[in-house]
């Protein structure tokens, strides 16, 4: 007879396809680790050594997610556009597969947060947050911080899923460009536009201060679409120039580490060079992450405990991202602090909150993936 611990383990166990690319899973697991690390570090006193160490060990996990998403979706689009005659049916099938993967989880968490926010009176109701449900809240304006603030990156991803296939359809079906030329022109066009727009906003805002970067540059659709397009550029190179992609994988990896280190140095030193921080940095980071992919994806599979942990952590990364900040950090940890840990001193409460955050996030995300996200994703094949 199974003991309770075994039953709990079986409930959380996630099966996975052994044909997954282990290298991509490593990068995806690193991305969500960086996100959780920066969110959980804030439980500690910001002046403490531990908080400073945790934050200095961090890279921009969301940008890494953008590049990986662009690389994977770019590969799907390239294979689709090269194999099939492009039609509205092709576009619909692409969107159906994407949205069965992303929207059920997003809408579920959004409605839960809507109920919690209405109950706690942080929001007045649906009318106040309706733009979140069609991903327009941060299209070209700062995202309000009173509801689901981490959804900023999901808006960027969803607009990428919507716009890029349409652009490619126009290039191939209307202007009769070949898929290869269409993809390259769309990639370069979107990268050029987003970069130009960041420069334009920077040039119109001479008195901007560092505290305004996140809302006005880092977390808007129109300023960050290029991050995903660098991933598509990688998929383009891997598909059409595979020999070059593989031949220079080590050189590119070293280049990527160097570019990420440049961005990291600026982050930890706190040096304020506006044109670099507002315009160039948002290009250097995704290029740096992109350069890691050719070498890392050569690691096709793995074995052992670490392999299984990394792969499963990667698989639940979307669910982890959706729940970790608002649902777990704000509401769940806030509830525990108020009703269970209310007599604990702040210095002892910080580590309790830290480990509670990680435990609850991973366990609930695993349940969400296994019993909600995965069944809905399977519907796209019906």
Automatic annotation (TrEMBL):
Bilayer-crossing regions: 21-41, 61-78, 99-117, 159-177, 184-201, 221-240, 252-269, 275-297, 309-332, 352-372
GO cellular component, one term: membrane
Pfam families: Acyl_transf_3
GO molecular function: acyltransferase activity, transferring groups other than amino-acyl groups; hydrolase activity
Coiled-coil region: none
Keywords, in A-Z order: Acyltransferase, Hydrolase, Membrane, Transferase, Transmembrane, Transmembrane helix
A GO biological process held by the record: polysaccharide biosynthetic process
Residue ranges constituting the Acyltransferase domain according to the UniProt record: 21-369
Name by which UniProt lists this protein: Peptidoglycan/LPS O-acetylase OafA/YrhL, contains acyltransferase and SGNH-hydrolase domains
């Amino acid at each position: 007879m199974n003991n309770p611990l075994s039953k709990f383990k079986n409930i959380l166990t996630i099966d996975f396809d052994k044909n997954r690319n282990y290298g991509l899973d490593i990068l995806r697991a690193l991305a969500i680790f960086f996100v959780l690390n920066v969110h959980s570090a804030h439980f500690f006193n910001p002046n403490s050594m531990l908080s400073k160490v945790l934050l200095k060990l961090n890279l921009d996990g969301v940008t890494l997610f953008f590049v990986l998403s662009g690389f994977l979706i770019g590969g799907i689009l390239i294979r689709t556009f090269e194999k099939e005659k492009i039609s509205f049916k092709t576009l619909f099938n692409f969107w159906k597969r994407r949205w069965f993967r992303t929207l059920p989880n997003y809408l579920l968490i959004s409605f839960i947060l809507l109920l919690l926010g209405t109950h706690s009176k942080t929001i007045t109701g649906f009318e106040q947050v309706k733009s979140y449900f069609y991903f327009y809240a941060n299209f070209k304006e700062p995202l309000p911080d009173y509801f689901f603030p981490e959804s900023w990156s999901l808006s960027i991803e969803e607009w990428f899923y919507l716009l890029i296939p349409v652009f490619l359809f126009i290039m191939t079906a209307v202007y009769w460009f070949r898929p290869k030329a269409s993809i390259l022109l769309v990639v370069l066009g979107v990268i050029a536009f987003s970069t130009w727009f960041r420069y334009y906003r920077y040039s119109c805002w001479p008195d901007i201060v560092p505290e305004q970067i996140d809302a006005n540059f880092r977390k808007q659709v129109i300023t960050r679409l290029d991050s995903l397009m660098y991933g598509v550029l990688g998929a383009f190179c891997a598909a059409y120039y595979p020999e070059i992609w593989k031949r220079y994988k080590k050189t590119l990896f070293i280049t990527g580490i160097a570019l990420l280190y440049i961005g990291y140095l600026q982050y930890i030193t706190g040096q304020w060079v506006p044109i670099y921080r507002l315009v160039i940095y948002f290009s250097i980071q995704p290029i740096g992450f992109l350069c890691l992919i050719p070498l890392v994806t050569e690691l096709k599979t793995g074995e052992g405990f670490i392999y299984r942990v990394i792969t499963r952590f990667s698989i639940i990364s979307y669910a982890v991202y959706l729940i970790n900040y608002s649902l777990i950090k704000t509401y769940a940890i806030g509830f525990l602090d108020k009703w269970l840990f209310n007599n604990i001193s702040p210095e002892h409460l910080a580590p309790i909150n830290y480990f509670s955050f990680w435990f609850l996030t991973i366990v609930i995300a695993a349940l969400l993936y296994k019993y909600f996200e995965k069944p809905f994703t399977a519907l796209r094949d019906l």
